[in-house]
Amino acid sequence: MLNGITAVDGTGRLGMDISGYAEWLMIPYSNAATQDDTLYDVGGRLSYTVGGSNFSVPLLPDTITVKPNPSLIVHYFHEKYVRGDDPLTQNVIEPTVPFTLAVMIMNDGYGIARALKISSAQPEIRENEKGLLITFKIIGAQLENNPLAPSLTVYFGDINSLETKTARWLLTSTLKGTFYNYSATFENINPLGDPQLSLLNELGYHELIYLVRIDLSSNDDGLDDFLVNDDVDENDMPDRLFSSANGSDVHPVIVGNVTAFKLLDKSTQPSLKRYKVVRLTVVTNATSWFYARVENNITNANLLNDENLLTVVRTDGRNIWVEKNAWQTTHIKNIFLFHLLDFISQDSNTTIEISYNLTFGPRNMYAPKFTSSEYMTSVSINAVLGTTVLTLKAYDIDNDTYTFRIKNDSFEQFYVEQNTGEITVARTFTSVGTITFEVVVQDLGIPSKSSFSVVIVKIHDVNMTSSPSNTTLPIIVITSRSTSVTNTTSTRPSIVMTNRRTITTQVNPNYTASTRTNWHSIVPDTTPSSTSVDVSEQSSTHTLESSKIIVMSTTPRNITNKEEKAETTPFMVIPIAISAAVLVLLVITIIVLMCVLRKRALLRAYVI
């Protein structure tokens, strides 16, 4: 940039009594610093002529640092088949299935690509022989695994050196169709319009067969990878596999030869679910990623028949990821096809035959559930091995068979019988306290589902109650004209009244009880201590815990003790509310009588 000076190529002029300056903008090319920061010395000389005399003055030198540039490699991936309404079918509207448009950007340089943003255009139809009206709609977008607003503009942010980022769009089409030719253009804007200053190093466009997963532990980044058909053929067979973890990591894919696809077994689970097991055999190279495809003429493509692809297991035990590396389609040439992608690693340069077991059937939708989210019980510290503590209960909406287990495999205090859910003592107890553990119920559906519950077991001394859910109440003993409670526990004494004439108690296992209408007698096996109890009344079934028990004596009866016989008194409990009413009435009567007597006394005094 020049100010006051007309040029700096030897023809420039600077007028009298005018100051001026010149500024240079230096943009280094990528080869000025390929991997690391590089230092450059910048200097020069100022030459000029005044009054016919030549002058030359050195400029003050300086050092500048040139940083490496980013270098971007961009790959677009687009599905060939677009599923939507078929214009050739009448009175039928086929469902619309979203298709994928994806872009993968790798920074192959050693500089940081800062604040990168890509604005892509929607797919365009260049040729439409039948002149049909076709439109596309974006229904979703994501960067890596993060959802974005449905837009073809994606802000990638900073992309570090040798880092790869992917973005994906989901689109729908009003009609079904096929993309045959692809093209993509990329425009990079720089201050000088110099193509050598472009950060774009490579641009590619690929026919996407399927979004798969490189699930080898060393390369799995948790993102979908791209199985593509670069060498276009009439059978649409894939030939390359692009990794989303590293844009430069591209694997060749071998097409395997399917030698067998046959039904092995029809099995029925106890829940009456029916499954089919199919054996697939493939011959392929010993060390490679390979793809296999075969027409499925054994199961039904209509999912209403509950013949879903559930599991794919290699004969060496490796599970193939269903819906990622094993899937089915009907849109390729209108044939029901099974697809498989797998990696074989064997110490051999020859071909190898490998087999897979495919399971088809109804998909398990619901997990079994416990009847309670928490179970509480108690057991004596002296309980012997095998003592039943609790029996778990569960249910399954799918009617699958299910089993029980303790969640922590190293937990050895209790044992759970897997079929019945019975929990028993597996180790003797050393102290009182509370033990809490989790139990799991798991069904045998495909895929298997499970849920858990919590079990709380209170370990108590022999003199304590046996179960919080069935607490033994203190014993009520009725003797002649007195009421007492035998309390064999440390809990607060209480009695329960079910109506105005009957007292009901829960009897300790050490006692026997006999009951008649409105009468209750108890025969103790040991001599208990007696505790006086208080009574209060509520309505219906009552717990009585205040005031003294009121006993109305009628005909005496006997209660037997091992050590002595005491005369017992049949009784009925007068409700406190009635007693209070009687008492109030009595007080009122007394007050009235006192008032009458007082008036008579005053009258007598007046007469005198």
TrEMBL record:
Residues 371-470 form the Cadherin domain. It is a single-pass membrane protein. InterPro entries: Cadherin, Cadherin-like_dom, Cadherin-like_sf. One of its GO terms (cellular component) is plasma membrane. Coiled coil: none annotated. It is found in: Membrane. It holds the Pfam family Cadherin. Gene3D superfamilies: Cadherins. GO terms for molecular function: calcium ion binding. Its main location: membrane. Keywords: Calcium, Membrane, Repeat, Signal, Transmembrane, Transmembrane helix. The chain crosses the membrane at residues 571-597. One of its GO terms (biological process) is cell adhesion. This is Cadherin domain-containing protein. It comes from Sinanodonta woodiana.
